[in-house]
Design a protein that fits this description.
With 129 residues, the chain is an alpha/beta fold. The protein is 46% helix and 14% strand. The protein contains seven helices and five strands. Strands 1-5-4-2-3 form a five-stranded parallel sheet. The protein is globular and about 45 Å long. The model has no long low-confidence stretch (mean pLDDT 93).
Length: 129
């Protein structure tokens, strides 16, 4: 259901505050099960410098014109290095009718968590599906 910002704010409560966030373990589990689409909303230059190996790259400033690349049947998880831009993207997608959350751990948290054996094992899991 599409809504405007005023409507969203009037309904904002503690449950929405909780629902808008997702932590890394839950994201990885949902993504592995094919229930989440991850959107990396960083600028092109940032993406060229490094990425985490999964997710779709749609820069924040291109998001309004690229909604057709987003799967409305999945939970959309937006991410950036920390979470500031990811929250902007999440709010925009929420107002456009998507089930959207932002990664509280940020991409730096992903990089820290998925290294060595964990990276190898997780990437093997998601590439077998």
């Amino acid at each position: 259901m599409q809504q405007n910002f005023s409507q969203y704010l009037k309904k904002f409560d503690y449950q929405e505050r909780s629902d808008m966030k997702i932590k890394l373990p839950e994201l990885l589990e949902l993504y592995e099960k094919g229930k989440a689409q991850v959107i990396d909303i960083r600028f092109h230059e940032e993406y060229k410098a490094w990425s985490v190996g999964f997710g779709v790259h749609i820069p924040l400033n291109e998001l309004p014109d690229r909604l057709d690349e987003i799967d409305k049947t999945k939970t959309i998880v937006t991410m950036c290095p920390h979470y500031d831009r990811a929250e902007i993207a999440r709010l925009f997608l929420k107002l456009e009718g998507f089930d959207a959350r932002y990664l509280t751990d940020g991409m730096l948290g992903v990089v820290d968590y998925l290294r060595g054996d964990k990276a190898r094992d997780y990437m093997a899991k998601i590439s077998n599906d």
